Amino acid sequence: MKEREISDKEIINYLQDTLYVINGKWKLPVLMAIKRGSTRFREIQRYVPPITSRVLSSELKLLEQNKLVTRKVYDEIPVLVEYTLTTYSETLFPIIELMVYWGKDHRKVIAGK
Amino acid sequence: MKEREISDKEIINYLQDTLYVINGKWKLPVLMAIKRGSTRFREIQRYVPPITSRVLSSELKLLEQNKLVTRKVYDEIPVLVEYTLTTYSETLFPIIELMVYWGKDHRKVIAGK
DNA sequence: GTAACCAGTATTAAAAAGGATACCGGTGAA
DNA sequence: TTCACCGGTATCCTTTTTAATACTGGTTAC
Question: What pTM does this model have?
Answer without folding.
Answer: 0.94
